[in-house]
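Re: the multi-chain job from yesterday

Posting the exact lines I submitted so nobody has to dig through the queue logs.
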Amino acid sequence: MVLDDLAPSQKLNRTTIVPFVVVALVAAASVAPFLYLVTISLLPSTTGGFGALWGRLFSTVPVATYLVNSGIVSGGATLIVLIVSCMAGYGFSKLRFFGSNAVLLAIIACISVPLATTIIPNYFNFARAGGVGTFWGPIVMYAAGATPFATVLMSNFFRGIPDELVESAVMDGATYWQIFTAIMARLAMPALMTVGVLSFLDTWNDLLVGLLFLPDPEMRTISVGIAALQGVRSTNIEMILTGSLLSAIPPIIAFLLFEKYLVAGITAGISK
Amino acid sequence: MLGTASGIASSASASSRVLSPLARAFASPRVAGLLFTLPAIALVCLVIVLPLLQSFYFSFTNWKGAHADWVGIANYSQMLADPELRRSLINSMLIFVSIPFGMIGPFVTAYLLYQGFPGVRLMRSLIFAPTALSWIVIGMVARELLANRGPLNGMLDAVGLEAVSRNWLADSSWALLAVIIAFNAAMWGVNTIIFLTGLSTIDKSTIEAARLDGAAGGQVLWYIILPSMRRFVEFVFIITVVVSFTGLFGLIYVMTGGGPGSATMTLDFAVWRRAFSTGSFGTGAAIGISLMVLTLGCVALIRLISGRRID
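And the result, structure tokens for all chains:
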């Protein structure tokens, strides 16, 4: 399932011109919202000349803080997911213990538990544990939400690595922990990239958990901060749109850098 | 490669002759397996399994934050009688029905990309790119395009269709249609990529052979391509349905706030509104549990229709 072997680019001729035009229109429509946001954010508005909206956005709304907050939350959650799922994937596929397959199946089943179903008890559990109004609360929340799929992905990856690799390292006197850090985690780099980009995008782009777990305006993530601008009378729509463009820049960079890993992650769930 | 790997391992073991108790525990494959998987198991138990059980329990109580009394199935039986929740359920089902239609565009796009032409890779990336955007951004753009003095009405007025232009999101039936279109449009890119992945798994020689035997383009599509795309069509249908049921909170929150009235509320939005804006946590929990059952039911239905064993 590699996308890089798309049909070799044929020359435009009578049979390829129609697909070309139709797809070009779809592609144009796909980037239109983005270009629209860029244009709105740069054009002179009621508040000033060319590009003035960006200046006003940064001076009137603490968007820099919001960006840092989002970075802390999605970075923290992604780091936890990477470590936890890599370890679990190795354990479930290479170091089977009594009941390990049943536990893995239970974790797979957890993929289908919607966030909306567990958010109410989670909110109260985290509040009791002191996790609401702190960064660790949403970090753990997001990390746990991404863990089931990431664990399945990592388990599938490690299953493709021959058992002999572990066995021969054990013969040489390595412990399982050493095999994990010196061999397995390194081999798993491509799968970890997939897990990382999926987890980062999901966390950065989420609204609900940030809205509930970070009530302090100073701690808002960029998504929550931008959504909250809607309710503020003094902010005009152009500035809100500029803010939402700002919030989209890190995910777009992540997309540009890791597109192929994202494709791998999305299509990983297709049952054989 | 095996040699290098074990080389690394043996040099690592030589440097730590004295084993700590933890390292000794890691010596048995079974114990090590349990220790390696423990963080994931703990996280999933504490943040998914336990809250799921709590939610199930609270859905039978009138919990409003302080204390919870057992009320049996009252939360569930009142759900269908509550106009707002009935509306949410109907809306979720209407979005469900829209999805097969929403899948046509991505399928055609993928099929055309598959034909190959200059710039095909760039266009594939551009079409896929909106997948990186949050529902907040998508909702903001959709809301602005459809605003009373927004670009859509501007265009309608410019071509003399003032009679058609309206405040789209303030009109209850148009608002729901707008959310449905925004949702399906936002899924276009990711679904195109999944279909394209499916098309790339088809053996090209089969298609070539059929062409040589004189099969027309339409016949190749119908008899060879579509049958081998079945599991990809099923997959796209399932993930789109799951996203529509469980992931639309952000889009609706910024695009319509569930309104006008409750015209664009979905079940996942209703959980938030009931629990965190009105404080009825028992009802919220019941909606959350119903949402999960409904989602699993719809996924099972899709698998049944596509003629596969449910597993």
